[in-house]
Amino acid sequence: MRPSTFIARRYAQPRNNARFLSFVSLVALLGIALGSAALIVSMAVLDGFEHELKNNAFKFSANIQVSGFDEAPIPNEKTRREGILNVIPNVKAIAPYVSHHAVVRAPDYMEGIVVRGIVPEMDVSTLRDNITDGRFAFSAPDAYEMIVGKKLARQLSVDVGDKIVIYALVGDATAMALPIIEQFEVVGIYETGMAVYDDLYVYTPFDRAATLFRLPEGAASGFDILVKDLDRIDETANLLDDLMLYPFFSRTVFDTYAGMFAWIELQKEPIPLVLGLISIVAVFNVIATLLMLVIEKIRSIGILRALGMTRSDIRRIFLFQGLALGAAGTLAGCVLGFALCWIQAEYHVISLQGELYFLDAVPIRFVPWHYVIVSIVGLALSFAATLIPAAIAARIQPLRALRFS
Predict the structure, then answer these.
(1) Is residue 68 a contact partner of residue 248, using CB atoms and an 8 Å limit?
(2) What is the pLDDT of residues 67-105, one digit of tens each?
(3) Of 18, 91, 99, 179, which has the fewest Cβ atoms less than 10 A away?
(4) Closest by alpha carbon to 115, among 53, 169, 158, 44?
(5) Comparing 203 with 310, which gets the higher pLDDT?
(6) Residue 97 parent element (H or E)
(7) Contact 181/129 with Cβ under 8 angstroms?
């Protein structure tokens, strides 16, 4: 072991007559740990939000949705659907749907919903993978059956096999028309974790929805489309607009959730910078700690210089001391950050208002490079913080040091 390393380790050991210095060192270590933990948690949360929201948006929304202005139905949907598949090569799959607002009623609760009529065999979403109870299928194309979200089912106090009543108002809402009332059986319950889906959308057979909302024969409310190449999604949307013409238009998933994606990008830029200031404050604690150590060890430094230790050796002692403090704080911060992220991921301690944030709990994503970056930044800042105290210690003259003591 090098003499400078041995001496640095001796300086790092707490002594009874240096309790204040040990306390200051502990504060500096905690500052680095808290700064590192804050950075890890913030990056895990931001990446979690981006990952979950993007995944859910792509899972439960089509890449492109074609619909009409003022809910105008698309006539001859089968012919138009086949034409899109034949003309636009980037279209991977296309499914018709019926969509309309309605009111659902159970014995003790009423709620506004969106009824979507789908053909399960053609559905382009991954809703079938999120069925928690029942089935993602209907007994007949015009069956009085529905699939509802878990949150809505809980609000309605219904389960698979129970009956719910749908009030569908078609035509001009200002004409005081009487609603069409139908009773449906719940055959499936799904859960996505996104409140915008789980308490709003219910699914029923395509033909039954078309009849319920009085769509013309052979018509659909719109098309859900999957594309082969997402990089060409805007080009594909433009081709669809040219093919479908007014009053029909296409909208990509990025258009649908433009505000959400912009919010994520906005949060990703300033938060790590702001939380990084905590680490910078911790660096000043390291500088203050090492400067106090230099003052407290002036006599020892003078003796070592008198015995022949070079300035480089003295500088190395304090560099090692600062790096050891930074490494210990960074390691503790990584462990603390991982523990906090694991607790949130497992137990969902921090919940969210799904209506505002699309998710019911703060999402966490474990990414190894987060820990690598925080460790590198922590060690680099700690090293930078040791340069000034180490340089001051190396410049101390033996004679002045002994007189000072």
Answers:
(1) yes
(2) 988 888 899 988 899 899 888 989 988 999 999 999 998
(3) 179
(4) 169
(5) 203
(6) strand 91-106
(7) no
Read off the DSSP letter of residue 137.
-
HSE-up of 103 (CA within 13 Å, CB side)? 10
**C-alpha torsion 373→374→377→379, nearest 10:** -120
Domain segments of the chain as ranges: 3-57+263-404, 62-256
Token representation of residue 104: 């659902």
> Residue 274: what residue type?
V
For residue 262 the two structure tokens come to 């912009």
CA distance 188 to 388: 67
Sequence-separated (6 or more) residues with CB below 8 Å from residue 386? 286, 287, 290, 318, 319, 321, 322, 323
Average pLDDT over residues 7-31: 65
**DSSP run (H or E) holding 65:** strand 64-68
DSSP at 177: P
Q: Is the per-residue pLDDT at 22 higher than 60?
A: yes
Task: State residue 12's pLDDT score.
Answer: 45
b/e for 194-222, b at 16 or more Cβ within 10 A? bbbbbbbbbbbbbbbbbbbbebeeebbbb
| Least confidently predicted of 4-18, 187-201, 243-257 | 4-18
| Cβ(297)–Cβ(392) below 8 Å | no
Find the helix packing angle between 298-306 and 311-347, rounded to 10°.
140
C-alpha 168/C-alpha 170 separation (Å) is: 6
Q: How far apart are CA 139 and CA 137, in angstroms?
A: 7
Residue 259 token pair: 């505000």
Using the 8-state DSSP alphabet, how is residue 135 labeled? -
Please count the CA atoms within 13 angstroms of the CA of 212 that sit on its side-chain side.
33
Place of tokens 């719940």: 186
- Residue 17 is given by DSSP the state G
Segments in 173-297 forming alpha helices (H) = 195-198, 206-212, 233-244, 253-256, 258-268, 270-296
Contact 334, 344 (CB under 8 A): no
More confident residue, 198 or 207: 207
